[in-house]
Amino acid sequence: MFPLKDNIPTDRLPIVTILLILVNVVVYLGLQHGGITHGPREREVVEYGAIPYEVAHPGRQCGTAARVGGQPLQTNGQVVCEGETVRLSDGRTVTIDETPGPAASTWLTLVTSMFLHGSILHLLGNMLFLWIFGTNVEDAMARWRFVLFYLLGGLVAIGLQVAVDPGSTVPTVGASGAIAAVLGGYILLYPRARVVTVVFVIFFFTLIELPAWAMLGIWFLEQALFAASSVASPAGGGGGGVAYFAHVGGFAFGLLAIRLFAQRRKRFPPPAGIPVWE
After folding, report:
1. With respect to CATH, is domain 2-61+103-261 assigned 3.80.10.10?
2. pLDDT for 224-261, tens place per residue?
């Protein structure tokens, strides 16, 4: 399911939401050098992404270059971390002494990772959700409160992902944890808002209008189920490249914290003319 729009007009220009979208796009195209037909450069993803191993082991740096006993180690592009024991192709196991090269502060990456993306589709999907649901959540509070709500939601999301899989060396990137907090806030503020949604059924699709509690509730249930299955799988909490626990953590933060941040809730008339599943 993909949302297209909701039925709640905004009372003011959503400046913060627009700026967040612009920053994400500029970072992807400029800093990450990503494009429409190709993904971002690996260097920026590793340097500015949040790597759970680094967060769980303060002071230990990760990278795609390494030294063991003062000698360079061929990693074939794999991310390795200082103090980590890895198995080489010849069957030997070694402990990484050093990962030379530029690296942003681990604590800085907790923020910078929220503005990185793994592909153009990853970016566009996140920005679509942010635009549809972020504008009205921003409308419900002071702009500085919305910035704080967004960033704290992203931090909680990354925190849960690290707690579940502290040994992962896969960089966590994307705005989806922070956006999940926005979704959690939206579902409490406007549960009966209507969301025009594209629903795909095999090779076909249809447009239906769902109440926000149903559309976002289904989305959260999917994330929770995928997160649970990722723990049960041999790959652990990585979720096959998707940080599902970050989505769960962000959404839970939004549910719990929105009443502390929101200052008002808009009234809006019920829609007419489009079938609704209740």
Report:
1. no
2. 999 988 776 544 444 446 889 999 999 999 999 999 99
